[in-house]
Amino acid sequence: MKNIALTGGIGCGKTTVSNIFLKNFGIPTIDTDLLARQAVTKGSSGLTQVISRFGSDILNDKDELDRLKLKKIIFFDKDKRKTLEKIIHPIVNRLVKEKIRMITSHYCLIAVPILRKESTIMSLVDRVLFIDCKESIRIERTVLRDKLELPLVKKIIKSQPSRIELKEMATDIIQNNDSFSELNRDIGKLHEKFIRLFER
Length: 200
Ligand code: ATP
Description:
globular; 5-stranded parallel sheet; binds adenosine-5'-triphosphate; Rossmann fold; 9 helices
């Protein structure tokens, strides 16, 4: 079985794309965001490690991780972000491997919103699918979806890997600037390509 990283910045259409792969072709997506949450659930060894680095101030009154507080700490501090990633990423990799073992399709997608060359998940993937979308369209769709303020969306975009970085890592690119029907068509073509490649 082959594993394809599914990546792209905020509002580019990763969730939409993974839903289409599942609905049209039965190709599942492993969501690393979800697994990253699982890695630091209450009482987990992941959370214990996070507390030992960031202090118990990052817990809420139920002794769960206060994700917003932690996000604020790491948003502008690269070293702290790296420290956190060093704890979380190996746990996520282990959980991804467990999920992969249960999948029976020809290939699966692994959704990784923040993918960098040095990301540990790169050791598990055979290809990288980048969902590209013009910034103005992403902003419009994200504001509409999340009712977020425009400056915040722009700030988030700036903090994520750039389109250039993601393009460099990509083995496959889908442009998601048009309608859902064009997206469906392009995903269909890509699926055929993957099947051809992986059946060799
Ligand atoms: P995030 O990383 O922020 O979670 P995402 O990459 O998963 O975002 P989606 O949630 O799939 O992005 O898409 C963002 C919004 O854009 C959604 O409301 C979705 O319905 C809409 N959208 C995605 N693709 C298209 C399209 N081709 N045409 C119109 N709307 C679209």
